[in-house]
Amino acid sequence: MKRGDWYKAGCLFALVLLLGTLYLYTRTELADGAQADVLAVDSAAQMGDAPDPAPPPLAYSEIYEEVTSNKRRRPSLNCEAALVVDNKTGKILYGKNEHELRSIASLTKLMTAMVYLDSKPDMTRLVTISKEDAANSAKSQLARGETFVALDLLHAALMSSDNRAARAISRASGLSKAEFVRRMNRKAALLGLKDTRFEEVTGLSQNNVSTAYDCALLLHSALEYRLIKEITTMERFQYYSRNKKRAHRATNSNRLLSSQHKIAGGKTGYIIASGWCLATRGCDSQGRDITAVVLGSTSNSQRFRDADRALTWGYNNAG
């Protein structure tokens, strides 16, 4: 081989070696970059920045099948809005202004309880009723300065709809008022409650709004929490203030618990803007499972008559 040929071969070899080195370097860089991306995603998830998984859709959230074409078969309800749902089939059996936006008063406390429990609280924590808790809630049994176990306050909020108790447990979560309400609205969005908005935790604000349709979904979601279901089916509960040793009794405001219905949970609500409200779930002796929501009934007694009729009518029309 001539001297010129050796020179060309050397140059070619050097070029091949350079290209090989560049190829390996590029592959290494790409691999490291991909790994860095994976680590970044994992770190974000651990820090809580990962998006929340979508909740499973509720059975009747996208189904509307009204079975009552004959008006004579409709339930006679004296309320502004109502919904009757067959929980076994997921069918809406009856609706009256079910998508009309309305104040929902203390039905709000179902969401308050869920967000409180989602915060993984220490329910043995002692909580003292503050001046802020006591504002605009004169009917409460809980005196300013009394100290209670947080779990007892959850009973008071859900059973006797105590506003001071609702404020106290939201504070006991360790979240600020603004953050707690933000989480209430965020959870409503995650659950598909498209027409539901919360301004505060008690339901005293007329700006806490929803629809009969959304309230049925709200109740359905709340009763997935074992503790909420247990508390909202208790007729009475006795507890004590820990510092003043004073006995208190929470009586459930849902009168249907002492009716012929087997009540699986529910919540009452009332302010002037909302009228008398009730969302409840009941079963009959045949195991038919019905949710009834009545909003804007004309009196305390009327809402229970309306709900009783709605449940009974629902059993008779369930598929």
Task: Give an overview of the whole structure.
The chain is α+β, with helices and mostly antiparallel strands. The chain folds into 2 domains: about 1-50; about 70-315, Beta-lactamase, CATH 3.40.710.10. About 40% of the residues lie in helices and about 20% in strands. The chain has 9 helices and 11 strands. The chain has helices spanning about 5-45, 110-120, 130-135, 150-160, 165-170, 175-190, 210-220, 225-230, 300-315; strands spanning about 80-85, 90-95, 100-105, 125-130, 145-150, 210, 235-240, 245-250, 260-270, 275-285, 290-295. The strands form 4 sheets. The chain has a 5-stranded antiparallel β-sheet, with helices on both faces. α2 (about 110-120) runs parallel beside α5 (about 165-170) and α4 crosses α5 (about 165-170). It is globular, with a radius of gyration of 29 Å. Mean pLDDT is about 85; it is low at about 20-55 and about 60-70.
Itemize the secondary structure elements and their pairings.
Layout: H1 3-46, E1 81-86, E2 91-96, E3 102-103, H2 108-118, E4 126-128, H3 131-134, E5 147-149, H4 150-159, H5 163-172, H6 177-190, E6 209-210, H7 212-222, H8 226-232, E7 236-240, E8 247-251, E9 262-271, E10 275-283, E11 289-297, H9 300-317
Antiparallel strand pairs: 1-2, 1-11, 3-6, 4-5, 7-8, 9-10, 10-11
Helix pairs in contact: 2-5, 2-6, 4-5
Derived from helix and strand composition plus strand pairing, the structural class reads alpha+beta
Biggest sheet, spatial arrangement of strands: 2-1-11-10-9
Top-tier CATH class of the largest domain: Alpha Beta
Give the biggest sheet: 5 strands, antiparallel
Kindly report the name of the CATH homologous superfamily of the largest domain.
Answer: DD-peptidase/beta-lactamase superfamily
Integer count of domains: 2
Label the CATH architecture of the largest domain. 3-Layer(aba) Sandwich
